[in-house]
Amino acid sequence: MIRIKRVYEKPSGRDGIRILVDRMWPRGCTKEQARLDAWRKDLAPSTALRTWFGHDPAKWMEFQARYRKELSLPAQKSAVEDLARLAHAQTITLLYGASDTEHNQAVVLKHCIENAKGAS
């Protein structure tokens, strides 16, 4: 199972493995508050893509396409497949810092993990 959650939300026993998928550390959040099991900067959107998107909902469709393209590169694709295998065995929670719960990289990454061939 794959869940997504803002890193600022209180950790829960149902979160399973907590993985931050932001390139930058979330502002105002301590490591103790985050209770991360992993920080996967390598799966976050590139700085150029993140800057271009700027969490503008009008750019959401194009952001998804560009981010999926980044995730299809060999190193990222392998990492996505690894997370798919992990999610098949246990719950993982993808953590993000953005205030927009519908238009963020964790939403796209969750979909990519669910559709990765490593999930089966």
Your description of this structure?
With 120 residues, the protein is an alpha/beta fold. The protein has one domain. The protein has helices at 31-34, 47-53, 60-71, 74-89, 105-114, and strands at residues 2-6, 17-20, 38-39, 92-96.
In total, the number of domains comes to: 1
Strand line-up in the sheet with most strands: 1-4-2-3
Strand-residue proportion: 5-15%
Sheet with the most strands? 4 strands, parallel
DSSP strand count:
4
Provide a concise account of the structure shown.
The chain has about 120 residues and is of the alpha/beta class. The protein has five helices and four strands, in the order E-E-H-E-H-H-H-E-H.
Outline the secondary-structure elements:
Elements lengths: L1 E5 L10 E4 L10 H4 L3 E2 L7 H7 L6 H12 L2 H16 L2 E5 L8 H10 L6
Helix pairs in contact: 3-5, 4-5
Output the keywords.
120 residues, alpha/beta
